[in-house]
Specification:
mainly alpha, disordered C terminus
Amino acid sequence: MPDVTQPPNEATEATGASGRRAILRRALSVGIATSAYGVSFGALAVANGLTVWQACVSSLLLFSGGSQFALAGVLGAGGSVGAAVASSTLLGIRNSVYAVQLAALLRPRGVRRFAAAQLTIDESTAVAVSQDTPAGRSLGFWVTGTTVYIGWNATTLVGALAGSQLGDPRQYGLDAAAGAAFLALLWPRLKQRQPVAVAIAGALVAFSLTPVLPVGLPVVAAAGVAVLAGVFLRDAAPGPGPSSPAPGRGSSPAPAPAGGDA
């Protein structure tokens, strides 16, 4: 009977090519969808008092949607520059956490380290860490990050040019766009009780402090609630029991739960 199986090297190449195409499709789809959101930022930034070039420089250098919306929202509401920067910085801290994980996965060298730092955002991190191989992680990260960066800056310019012609943002509801943007960023993460509880606590703190603090500071206080909750939950997390045997020392691994990974 003739051997009709594919040689191992050809099978590996075919699987690798198919995997790369799948990663490219996902990275490009995520990048293009995220880029379209830049129109909203550009229009909101100009409507809240930034010039077209200031909005574009924000996307070129800051390049973090949540932080940019915070900056434009606080300034547009009459807040101080310090409050706007503080709110923007707190929302951008998560990118530093991503960077620690990605540095271990991608191991960029030389100039690529600076490029990787600029492209470390929610979307590029999500696509990268979901891949199974080092090559897949690298491809997903760079394609997603580059696509979002180019698209976000292009759509920021489009939105800023359009926003400069709109006049009063309240006539079009753009004064509420910053709050809507934050809700859109937060909503996918509210899948467990702890994030919901932290979000409610932060909202109550911000709501109660709004009448007595300058614009932007209630947001900073709400972010502080999230930081304290994270520290408390980390410290309260139970560690391995003293009597738990270490893996590989006479203990047998527990059977995997039915239904796959959690």
